[in-house]
Amino acid sequence: MKAYQIKSKAFHGTDYEEVYPQAAAVFKRIKNKNPRRQPNVRSPHFSNSKIFIGTFWQHLNQKSNPDRIRRLKFFGCGIELIRNSRFEPTTKKNPNKPNFLMHRFAGVTADKELFYVQIQENTKTGKRYLMSAFPEQ
């Protein structure tokens, strides 16, 4: 799998109160561009179809606090990766839900940190949802 080189860096900070405002600002900009609709970004890999990003926050709230901080740091990088990458992700069926596919994209930040973005696709409806962005560790 090829890793897409993005221009931005991961958010800085070691505490939730430091990292969350940065990620919330990115989400707010996207949400304001789509008033009355679910917040989404378009991906050139999926023929410019929409990737809904609201489920990221639901998935994030299920995680422990250290893991939540680790994932929030790469939220902005993940959005940039979705918007720009045309590289092929690794795709596999979700073992828990047979009607869903999991796509995993790889990216490298400006600081040379490897991270992944996971997108879940509903095969019945064709809708895609951003599930997570996380570093390699």
Mean of residue pLDDT? Answer: 94
Distance between the termini: 17 Å
The rough form would be described as globular
* Main sheet record: 7 strands, mixed
Secondary-structure element order, as H and E?
EHEEHHHEEEE
Task: Please give the share of residues in helix.
Answer: 25-40%
Count every helix, treating DSSP H or I runs of 4 or more residues as helices.
Answer: 4
Helix- and strand-based class?
alpha/beta
Unreliable runs, pLDDT <50, ≥5 residues? none
Q: Roughly what fraction of the amino acids lie in strands?
A: 25-35%
List how many beta strands DSSP finds: 7
Tell me the quaternary state.
single chain
The value of Rg in angstroms is: 14 Å
Structure at a glance:
This protein is of the alpha/beta class and 137 residues long. The chain is 31% helix and 30% strand. Strands 1, 2, 3, 4, 5, 6 and 7 form a seven-stranded mixed sheet that branches.
Name a few traits of the molecule:
alpha/beta, 137 residues
Describe this structure in words.
This protein is α/β, with parallel strands linked by helices. It has 4 helices and 7 strands. It has helices spanning 16-33, 54-60, 65-72, 75-84; strands at residues 3-5, 40-43, 49-52, 90-93, 100-108, 114-122, 128-135. Strands 1, 2, 3, 4, 5, 6 and 7 form a 7-stranded mixed β-sheet that branches. β2 and β3 form a beta hairpin. α1 packs across α3. The longest helix has 18 residues, at 16-33. It is globular and about 40 Å long.
